[in-house]
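Below is the record:
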Amino acid sequence: MHEGKIIKYYREKAGLTQSQLGEGICSDTHISKIERGLTDYSPEITRLLSQRLGIDIPQELCRAIQIKQRLLRWQETIVMHQMNEMDEIHHELKHMTLLRISDYKMMYQLLLARYELMRNNPDSAYRIMKELQKLQSTLPPYENNLLKHVWGLYYLSKQDYVQAISTLNQITELDYPNPEYFYHLAVAYHMVQSQIMCYYYAEKSLKYFKEMNYFLRGIDAEMLMLIQLKDEENLEFRDSIERFHNLLQSCDMCHAPDRKAKVLHNLAYEYYRRKEYESASRYYQQSMELKNKLTGPYLLSLEGYIRSSLEGNLIPREDLSPLISDGLSIATKLKESLYIVLFNLLKHFIQDEEEAYHEYLQHKALPMYRQQGYTYLVIRSEKELFSYYVNRNQLAQALEIAACLITPK
């Protein structure tokens, strides 16, 4: 950013030609060279041009320098999930008119797309990224990789974990000194049940978060690493539970109820998979109490709570039916296809509609799980269908499912 760009911007904003701006001061040729940064000029010319344009050039230069500083701080608040300051800087940047002519306008657009994702506005982010995609070949290396990072986050928001992994793996680490993306790779690998890759990238992100003193993000990474150890023979359950409770204490110390809700949910799952349904139900409920009811994370904990209660015979079915209807209503309102499927399955199950349940599971739920890469749900569903067909002596269908079970995911 330099004086010439500022002069050109305000000249065009004022609707003046180069000749009109330079009249009585200098030639239009000289104005052209000033705007393109091709000539030196005296402070007196700068003063006269500023006066005619009604601006203060030193003040405008100061504002231009602040653009880069504010963008870098905005990126940092996004990485740290400091939502209040993130919103404040967003509002501030919206009113920085010089962003339109700065060298950082692409950076701003990329961070704006990420901001929209943080604010659960994926459609707005998508529109920004589609426009930037047209310019990808001209983007500098950092911005090019940032675009891939934001696309990866978009696919994560759409629960397309296979595409998220593919996109994030295209990032060139040497050209993109932002190791935060390792965490997002870890999340995507976790969702497709790739435990080794998840642990590997979560550990890399944890190192970065510790170096930067991003304590809350460190909690995220540590939790992700911990839940990958569920099948580790040398890790006793009580040790795992102790580490979960240490994370809960860290959340309380950092006053982070949103993180605490995630830790509680994963702790509940640890109990659920060990068939300790009473503890699982209790922790799922505690997690739900800390979440916004009109969100996917709330629905995930609600689904876990209902399953724990059903399988542990903790609550009568007639008392769970309203919860299922409530969950399905919220999922439909949010247009969350995964949770619509999960709560429809629970609805069939609780009404003892065995045939309808398995029909829905095979022809509606399972294809969606496979398409979107929900490996855990794919495996669980295939096992459930295999047992169902074997018990009904439908061997052809059982063999078809068995072939899927023995095929590497």
Observations:
- Residues 57-80 form the longest helix (24 residues).
- The chain has a mean pLDDT of 89.
- The CA atoms of residues 190 and 198 lie 5 Å apart.
